[in-house]
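Dear support,

I submitted the protein below through the web form. The confirmation email said the job was done, but the results page showed an empty box. After a refresh the structure appeared. I'm attaching both so you can tell me whether what I see now is the final result or a partial one.
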Amino acid sequence: MNRSYLNLNPLMLRSESSNSGMKSQKRSGSLFVLSVVAFLTLLPSAFGQDFNMTLAPFNPFAVAPGEASSATISLGALNNFNGMVDLTCAITSDTSGTPPTCQISPQSVQPSGGATVTITTNGSTTPALYKVAITGASPATTITQSQNLTVLSVTAQFTITVQTTVAPSSVPAGSGAQGIISINPINGYSSPGKGITLSCASISPLVTFPPVCSFNPQPLPVNGTPATSTLTINTAGPITTGAVASSRSFYALWIPLPMLALAGLGAAAGGKRTRKAWGLLALFIVSGSLLLMPACGNSSTSSTTPNGITPPNTYTFTIVGVDIDGNISSNTNSNGTNPSVSLSVTAPSKVP
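What the results page shows now:
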């Protein structure tokens, strides 16, 4: 039994060794076949592609309606390719509406070269997330790369600018000046109600009798296009009055009375010629008195200041516009971009 076992054991070892070798050969053969298949599959594409393309991220990646964004396209030549690559652009979104526009410049590029893609929006562009796909095509190769661009949702608004500065720029107290203010709508803004109410929100320096602003028209209707209003600045000054006849002029009527009484007594005591002479004298006295009456009146002018006088200084006015919904002009804030006008006020003119 022991000898038989020893004789069979080597045979069994040979059989197991033979099976293991066959399995190893099968694995090696399978790996070789797979390698050949992969090589043959990749070989045509590797030698057939004649360029590569890279699309950089958009800058900025999010824009408000009316703004634009751009990105660069880089092309590289492969396998000694020296032909032209045509570039096209397509914009898609899950939201229906008006998409932005896409433009590539130049539209045909020879690698190695580059181009710029520009996305433009306007007031009617629908806020959404857009996919911008850039495709480069040569006779043998087509490559498409995509980037996302967001068009933000922005509330319609407006800005205020000084179209014409106030003129004259310097006036005496009691006089005024005028300028033109423009309201510029953004994103197709149209004013609700009767329009935008304009005002001088602040005046510096602060004084007791400051200049006063007014606008015409007020309120100002805005319907998607710029509109203008005339700004008038009035100052407080003296009010001049003309010459007024005084009641003292009636006292001039008493001047000729003594002479007339003397003339009457002389005429009564004398003869015919004497009475004629005294009559001429009385007529002369009365006529002279009438001519002297205006001299007894008050012919000087005068002035009053019922509202006070605006002190001499240079005044600055900040212009603000507000609509019925409470929307305020977007360039009126604390960042120093406030639209403003200035007016210099001098001492009032002398009254003659």
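Response: this is the final, complete result; the empty box was a page-load delay. The two ends are 156 Å apart (CA to CA).
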